[in-house]
Design goal:
This is MarR family transcriptional regulator. Keywords: DNA-binding, Transcription, Transcription regulation. One of its GO terms (molecular function) is DNA binding. By secondary structure, the chain is an alpha+beta fold. It has two domains: 11-77, Arc Repressor Mutant, subunit A, CATH 1.10.10.10; 88-244, GAF domain (Beta-Lactamase, 2-Layer Sandwich), CATH 3.30.450. It is 49% helix and 21% strand. It has helices spanning 11-25, 32-39, 43-55, 71-79, 88-98, 127-131, 142-149, 153-164, 168-184, 224-244, and strands spanning 59-62, 65-68, 102-108, 111-118, 135-137, 187-190, 197-206, 209-219. Helix 5 (88-98) packs across helix 10. It is globular and about 55 Å long.
Length: 245
């Protein structure tokens, strides 16, 4: 892909994205001064960004504190529910069928983010990653690798060009695994993000559109985890297919 088509980061876009996330994570909202300190940017510049985001409905202001506005939700509605919608009861049922914890995950730029989890997680330190929606590098998670593999080819090429600037070895390894992931529509992580965790991801779809991934996790103890997760995924896929017919 040519220089013009590279998915390079943009400072202003990064600042806007960070402001929106900070507002979303703060129950009582954030002030311009707090944002400016964290961004290490002039308060006047941050105020300009915030003013524009309030004017377009991405932020709401109350008592000089800013919270996430309705615009992101409206855009999802306009786009036709591109974010997977699986309720808590359904996630818990999927976890019961699989016999393993289940994470609902989406791609956000160059990261994978867990939206929700079902079942009881046997690895407690994974719980806040899901409950606090912590961003994790795409190539270091089973879900990220699956979602990247199933992304449109042109977009995937641009994303890999950007990722290669920071982790060329991981990109090279992913490129070699890409045909198998696309053929099977299954991705694995054997300790990539956490040396004690094995994970397997399958796609969540709406029609022909891949909207997210379901991740099954298991504590790594030996070779048996791969077979365990394979069987869990087979049960889950059969259950999903049965519900659709």
């Amino acid at each position: 892909m040519g220089e013009h088509g590279r998915r390079r980061r943009h400072r202003t876009v990064d600042r806007v994205a960070w402001v929106l996330e900070a507002a979303a994570r703060a129950p009582g909202g954030v002030t311009v001064a707090e944002l400016a300190r964290t961004l290490q940017a002039p308060a006047s510049s941050v105020q300009d960004l915030v003013n524009g985001l309030v004017a377009t409905g991405f932020l709401l202001e109350q008592h000089r504190r800013f919270r996430l506005g309705p615009a992101p939700h409206v855009l999802n509605l306009i786009a036709g529910r591109v974010v997977p919608r699986i309720g808590q009861a359904e996630l818990d049922e999927l976890s019961r069928v699989a016999g393993t914890p289940v994470l609902l995950t989406v791609r956000v730029g160059l990261d994978a983010v867990h939206l929700a989890r079902g079942g009881e997680d046997e690895i407690p330190r994974l719980v806040p990653l899901a409950d606090e929606h912590v961003a994790r590098p795409l190539l270091r998670t089973a879900a990220g690798r699956l979602l990247l593999a199933l992304t449109d080819e042109v977009e995937r090429r641009g994303l890999l060009d950007e990722l290669a600037r920071h982790d060329p070895e991981a990109v090279a390894e992913f490129r070699s695994a890409l045909p198998a992931i696309r053929a099977s529509r299954i991705s694995r992580s054997e300790g990539l993000a956490d040396p004690e965790v094995s994970a397997l991801a399958i796609p969540v779809t709406e029609g022909s559109l891949v909207t997210g991934a379901l991740v099954l996790t298991h504590r790594r103890r030996g070779r048996s985890e791969r077979l365990f997760l394979d069987r869990a995924a087979a049960r889950l896929l059969a259950h999903i297919q049965e519900r659709r017919t």
